[in-house]
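Fold this sequence, please.
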Amino acid sequence: MSSETSSTNSRSSPTTAQSKSRGPGRPKKNPMTPCTWCAETKIPLKYVLPTQNGKKEFCSEVCITEFRKAYSKGACIQCDNVIRDNAPHRDFCSTFCMNKHSKKLASANGGSVNSNSGQSTHSNNNNIENVNDSNGNHDGRGSPIIQSGPFQFEQLHVFNWDEYLKKTGSVAAPPECFKQALDPPENNFKMGMKLEALDPRNVTSTCIATVVGVLGARLRLRLDGSDNKNDFWRLVDSDEIHPIGHCEKNGGMLQPPLGFRMNASSWPTFLCKTLNGATTAPEEIFQREPLTPRGNLFKVGQKLEAVDKKNPQLICCATVDAVKDDQIHVTFDGWRGAFDYWCRHDSRDIFPVGWCARSCHPIQPPGQKSKFDSASNNKHTKRSSFGVGSDGDALTPTKPVTVHFHTRCRGGPYINSSRLPSMVTAPSHSTLAKLCLQEILAASTNTSQMSQLLFALDGEVHIVTAAGKNFTVKIPSYLRKKGNTAMAEFLETLCTTVKSCNNLITLDPGPDNCPNCASPPKRPVETETVAPGPISPKRKRVAEQETATSTTTNDSPIPSSSTGTSSSPCPVVNQQNPSGSPQMPTSSPSEWTIEEVIDYIAITDSALAIHADLFRKHEIDGKALLLLNSDMMMKYMGLKLGPALKICNLVTRVKGRRPLSFKE
């Protein structure tokens, strides 16, 4: 027996020694936080709802919607959870919370707990009810219940616009600036209802959509036949949604959505099956769209509520950061410029202050970067620059500063002045300098060369966004201290750097016609020698190209003594192209780069220049341009029919075009 024991010990001792040398092993995984509504722990909690006593996290929109409905009816006094139908008392979610609350009240009053906890609780609740009844309609916490919807309670307690405006010293944009109803429209839509809606990715198509979410006066829609990655939001008084049958009554035809997952030939069958037995939205719940404002009435610095384009389910506190023609620049308080955007003054994505509260829609308060005591100072600095030293914009001038662009002036070799706006307004000189550089980059014929010139300036490093890309530029720091004088010097240096007319960008409006750019040519003899007779329009462009070619090769087409006093034909070319727009590419179209393709389209038809970013995104070079057709551009690039046909016409002209280096 002893021998067996010793042998057993000898066999087990190596294992014991080995287990001791292994260490504690992998730690246990922390359990995931359960969903507040369904208690699911296997799904990430992507939805957060702020309440008076903290935040609630949910796994899906269904859970957060159901929680809102229950939460609006009242919440537990003790734990702030919703009170379900099987609760022991209307003010508590469970017996545990009811007993715990009674003990807390008893200890706060300095007395002992009644042996009958239920009686003590009943007595305290009667006191609460009496107080509530004396003050009007209240919930169990003594907070007012807003009858108009579930989110009023959260809005009033989480974010107070009056307090925010007072502490930041800012003003709200007046309601007449917005294309929104003074009283938010009533939302009687229900989830699962079907309606007609314009495809947001192809607004010429009317499709069948299903209501998959209802929030305040907004609807979350999903086009039937598409996936859930292209859901979009619309107001109930939008002119882009209509009851079923509206398209047919007006002579239209329902179309499959862009990215229809089935074969296009099966669309009629799919449409019949979709509408058969479906719950359609009745016509009376659709609201008429409000009137459009008479003009852009916004002013820099005014506060508003705006949809976050990258997270369209959110409406956030925002500020008008700049005004340009019929556009405004929206910047979100407390967030850096990655979320900012330009929009029209009559956009349906911007709302007056307090609209969310009145429509029972949640509003996102300012981000952590914007505290009450510094929001008004720092909100402009974090709009579009991630640069060093941006905090100096806190020295905001008493009134906005405006810069004027004179589009009739010569833009030089890098800027197409016809693309520039008439004016830009900003709250500070530093912000105005950023906007100027942004507009110059957007109007540039070659953004890579222009960005190098702007980075060569003296000053602090900033990042601006133009033409869908981020560019690194430099802005002098002394603009904050010296004001208009320093700004005028900066604009003069900028014009010199980009080789444009010195009057292209100025602080004062100035005359309509620049004396430097509108002056007649100094050497009329050159016009007589180069063009002795009228040139037909068909030969005019080829003649200019031949003139430019002769200049670069130092050929002298007319060696007479009369032309010896005149310069080369370059001044004539500059006179005919004062805006500095690029010349047509001289190489074969199949060898064009992406930028040369964009230049060709922009020169030939300036209205198509707005699609430049689309050609960059899809990397359309010369070879790809020759393969384009209208179907490709509409289906894969999302172009409308009109621009697609125009570009197809340009492609046809390019295919039959010989290289520009030939002589006739």
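The first helix runs from residue 2 to 21. The two ends are 116 Å apart (CA to CA).
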